[in-house]
Amino acid sequence: MNSFSHSFLLLSRKKLKIYDDPKPDIVVVESPSKLEETITKTKLKARKMLEDVEKQFKQVSDRWISIEQKIDRTINEVVSPKERLMPEVLYVGVAGLGGSVLAKNRGIFLRLTTPIAFTIAASYYFLPVTSHNIARKLSEYEQKSPALVNVHQSISQTTNETKNKIEALTSDIKHTYNDQVKKVEAEVKKIWK
């Protein structure tokens, strides 16, 4: 056999393809660079921090709104709708200032207590229902704190003792005055007889 036939034989055994072999798909795998990884981590941390801040802001906002609503309910419980507030509140304030003016050159105790006493007295005169509601609300708050109850009891006890001493002193002065008047009247009758 000659070489031509031999190559033909080899070719015939091996079929030649009409088309080229398909090229393998090229898969490009993108891997982020260090800069991109750092930026992504920073973005995630910033987003989480922003979400936390928003959550905390919402909690503070909700708490503030609940406090406002509680104050609004308390004011509506205390202030009587049957009483006018505007001029009466001014009268109460002026009474407190008047008490301050009256006690201007007095001792420290009178300078502290006179404006408070005048304010309380004026509030019970000009705003009796509201003043009663305020006193009731204060006693409710006072019952929640045992320390305030003790302070209030000691103040009440001291006030009652002071009141009793003043009443006793006034009674003694009246009794002494009446005795002196009777003695003077008796002396005058002796002289005129």
Automatic annotation (TrEMBL):
Entry-linked InterPro entries = MIC26/MIC27, Mic26_fungi
Q: Which Pfam families match?
A: ApoO
The job of this chain, per UniProt, is described as: Component of the MICOS complex, a large protein complex of the mitochondrial inner membrane that plays crucial roles in the maintenance of crista junctions, inner membrane architecture, and formation of contact sites to the outer membrane.
Indicate whether Methyltransferase appears among the record's keywords. Answer: no
Cellular compartments annotated: Mitochondrion inner membrane
* Keywords of this entry: Membrane, Mitochondrion, Mitochondrion inner membrane, Transmembrane, Transmembrane helix
GO terms, biological process = cristae formation
Which parts of the chain span the membrane according to its record?
A: 108-127
Q: Outline the subunit composition.
A: Component of the mitochondrial contact site and cristae organizing system (MICOS) complex.
Major subcellular site: mitochondrion
This chain's protein is named: MICOS complex subunit
Q: Which GO terms describe its cellular component?
A: MICOS complex; mitochondrial crista junction
